[in-house]
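Record type: monomer structure entry
Structure origin: computed from sequence
Chain ID: A
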Amino acid sequence: MFEELSDVELVALHKRGDIDAFPALFGRYRKMIGSLASSYFLVGGDRDDLMQEGMLGLLKAVNTFQPDAGASFSTFAYLCVDSGMKTAVKKSLSAGNYPLNASVDLSQQGEKLYSEVDPERTVIGKEEEEEFDKKISATLSSLEYGVLSCFLAGLCYREIAEKLGVTEKAVDNALFRIRKKLH
């Protein structure tokens, strides 16, 4: 029944209380949500968590879409889904989430919760970190490296653009290239 209805008609049905309209829309946008989810990395999470954020973004799009606002539903849905995922990624990188991201699963029986400091492992870890940093700086342009550093520090697009003296679009393009190069 829903196959022949447009997205806007399904949105209207959902707003009128039809509980089957949203699953039909989700079926149409599942691939787009999956594609966006695979382009982000969520600290302490996985692709399923990003898919869930995308589904919430789609639900927000359905609930707030106004057909007379001038944008197609698919464009509006894409922006809502992308925005929801970006917000989740930024929150996962914030200092407030560090205790959660660095926590130890207490249900793992038999493993040491606190390891003793091993000088050899410390040196090897630092060497591996330096090697990784060299690879990143060799792979990325100076702009991309600056954008990545700022992004990982939790700055938003506007703040990164102001700090580096570029446009927000240049920041977005740089992050897109970074994902392609490091993926």
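Annotation 1: The CA atoms of residues 39 and 179 lie 7 Å apart.
Annotation 2: Residues 133-182 form a domain with the Arc Repressor Mutant, subunit A fold (CATH 1.10.10).
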